[in-house]
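U., I forgot to send this yesterday:
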Amino acid sequence: MADTTEKTQRKVLLPVDQSENSFRAVEWFLKYGVQPNDYVILFHSVDTTSIIPATGYTWAGPLPMGQMEGLLREKEREVHELKKKCLSVLSTAGLDGEFIHTSLYPHAGEAIVHACKQHGVDYVLMGNRGMGAIRRTFLGSISDYVLHHAHIAITIIPPPKEEQH
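Result:
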């Protein structure tokens, strides 16, 4: 008879950024969702699309490379600080896992779905900003995109009721 006591490791992806909503979802996972033997991937999609508009570039002249380099260094610093915070969360909780980030996708939802496939993720738990239907229609929703494209189990943690728009 086969030994059925061997436990399989569940891979859980928790998308994170600097927002309260993403870390509230992480806290929810640690309180209610974590299971023994979980491998937790704290995943961040770096928003590089905001760099060119922040330079004031309008295609009327040469790209301000010095200004862009400074903004890229700032993004690197933000990612480094987020990584430190995430690794501290994993360590404090005694969880096996890692922090992964990418800047390859212009839309965070695409990045999350790709990371799920690339890393063989079984489950995603993520926060939600609580946008109303009209704002979500025009701006799009990362959680909505992941829900409809990842094809794995997903839990979406809404913002507190007083924050919903």
